[in-house]
Amino acid sequence: MTFLELQPLSQDLLPAALALDQRCFNGLWTFDGYQRELDSPSSELLVLVEKGAEREGADGRQATAKDRKREASETEAFNIQNIPAPSNHRNSPARPSPSLLALGCYWAILEEAHITILAVDPTYQRQGLGQALLYALLTSARDRGLERATLEVRISNHSALSLYKKFDFREAGHRRHYYPDTGEDALVLWRGGMQTPDFAERLLQWQQQICDRLSQTGWQWLTGG
Ligand SMILES: CC(C)(COP(=O)(O)OP(=O)(O)OC[C@H]1O[C@@H](n2cnc3c(N)ncnc32)[C@H](O)[C@@H]1OP(=O)(O)O)[C@@H](O)C(=O)NCCC(=O)NCCS
Fold first, then answer.
1. Over the stretch 136-190, which tens digit does the pLDDT of each residue have?
2. Which residue ranges make up each domain of the chain?
3. What span, in angstroms and rounded, lies between the C-alpha atoms of 224 and 83?
4. d(Cα 188, Cα 168) in Å, to the nearest integer?
5. Index of the ligand 1 atom closest to the CA of residue 127
6. 3-class DSSP state of 49
7. Atom 25 in ligand 1: which residue has the minimum CA distance?
8. 90 vs 140: CA distance, rounded Å
C-alpha cells in the first residue's frame, strides 16, 4: 500500500509540476505561468503526491502495520475538507520534495470553475488518480460557492471525455480549430448544479467509488493537514 496525499501546489513542487506539464502536454504553461497561478487568489492548483510505502509517525519512528491500520481508519481515506490553506503551503519552509503524480487547476471566475489543467503522470494513469483529482477540484469549487464547472477538451481525447462523462459533464459547445498545434477542435463541457443537494449526493457516491478504485490499485489516501 502506498500513501497518496492531496495538497495545494507549493513553491518547492513547481519544478516537478513543470516536468509533469511537459510530459502530459508538451509544455502548456511556463515556469512564470505556474508562478502567476500560485500568486493568483482566483486560481486553485491541487496536486497528488506519493508519500512512500513507509511513513514516519509524529514521534519520528517508522510507522508500524498497527499504526497504519489505525491511521487508515482515522483518516477514513477521503476528507477533502482537510486540504490545508494554500497560503500556508506556499510560504512553508523548504522540505524534502515528495513525488508529484498529478496536477489539476481551476480558475474561479464569477460563479464558475474553469478547469484549466488535469494531468496524471503517464506512469500512474489508469489507477484512479485522475478521478480523485477531478473529485477534489469539484469539491473545492463547490466549497468556494461556485455553481458550475466548465472546461475545453480535445475532441480526440477519449480518456478525458470518458472521465468527464463519469462526473456528469455535458457537451455545451464546439470550438473549431481551437488547438494551434494540430488545428483540432475543442468540445466545451459543463457541469452545473454544484450547490444542489443532488450534487452533494453525487460527491458522496464518487467518493466511495474513488476510494474503492484507489485501494484496488494499491493506494491509500491520506488527508492533508
Ligand atoms: C485524462 C487523465 C487525467 C485520466 O487520468 P487517469 O488517472 O488515467 O484516470 P483514472 O484512472 O482515474 O480513470 C478514470 C476514468 O477515466 C477514463 N479513462 C482514463 N483513462 C482511460 C483510457 N486510457 N481509455 C478510456 N477511458 C479512460 C475512464 O472512464 C476511467 O474510468 P474507469 O477506470 O472506470 O474506466 C489522464 O489520462 C491524463 O493525464 N491524460 C493526459 C492529460 C490530459 O489529456 N488531460 C485532460 C485535459 S482536458
1. 999 999 999 999 999 999 999 999 999 999 999 999 999 999 999 899 999 999 9
2. 2-146+196-222, 148-192
3. 5
4. 13
5. 11
6. strand
7. 159
8. 17
Query: Kind of pairing, strands 2-8 and 43-52?
Result: antiparallel
Query: For residue 95, how far is its CA from the centre of ligand 1 (angstroms)?
Result: 31
* Grid cell in block for residue 142: 463547490
Q: Is the beta carbon of 160 within 6 A of some atom in ligand 1?
A: yes
DSSP-derived letter for residue 184 is -
Instruction: State the residue for C-alpha cell 494540430.
Output: 182
* Beta-bridge mates of residue 114: 107, 150
Would you please indicate which residues are annotated as catalytic (active-site) residues? 152, 164
| Dist. CA 80–CA 64, nearest whole Å | 25
The domain covering 2-146+196-222 belongs, at the CATH homologous superfamily level, to: Gcn5-related N-acetyltransferase (GNAT) (3.40.630.30)
Neighbouring-strand partners of residue 149:
113, 191
Half-sphere exposure of 60 (CA within 13 A, CB side): 0
Amino acid identity of residue 132, one-letter, is: A
Predicted TM-score (pTM) of this structure? 0.85
Maximum Cα–Cα distance across the chain: 57
